[in-house]
Amino acid sequence: MAGVISAVHGPPCPPRAARRGDIVRCGWAIGICRGELAEFYGGDMVPMRRVEQAWHV
User: Fold this and answer.
1) φ, ψ dihedrals at 52, nearest 5°
2) What is the pLDDT along the chain (57 residues), one digit of tens a residue?
3) Domain coordinates in residue numbering, the chain
């Protein structure tokens, strides 16, 4: 999945550089940066420090 996102949005940025609304990946799940937290399907919220990759939108 990371390859598909990179093909559309370019190379990933460091997760610490992610801004609100950016795409993030944690394990196999793709979500959205919400500031200090990342939101995933079903409303699951994860601290941004656990995010593995991020892409600017």
Assistant:
1) -95, -35
2) 899 999 999 999 999 999 999 999 999 999 999 999 999 999 999 999 999 999 999
3) 2-55
Contacts 24+ apart (CB under 8 A), 51-54: 51/15, 51/18, 51/24, 51/25, 51/26, 52/15, 52/25, 52/26, 52/27, 53/2, 53/12, 53/15, 53/24, 53/25, 54/12, 54/13, 54/14, 54/15, 54/17, 54/18, 54/22, 54/23, 54/24, 54/25
Residue 54 phi/psi, 5-degree rounding, is -145, 150
CA 49, 50, 55, 57 torsion: positive or negative?
negative
DSSP 4: H
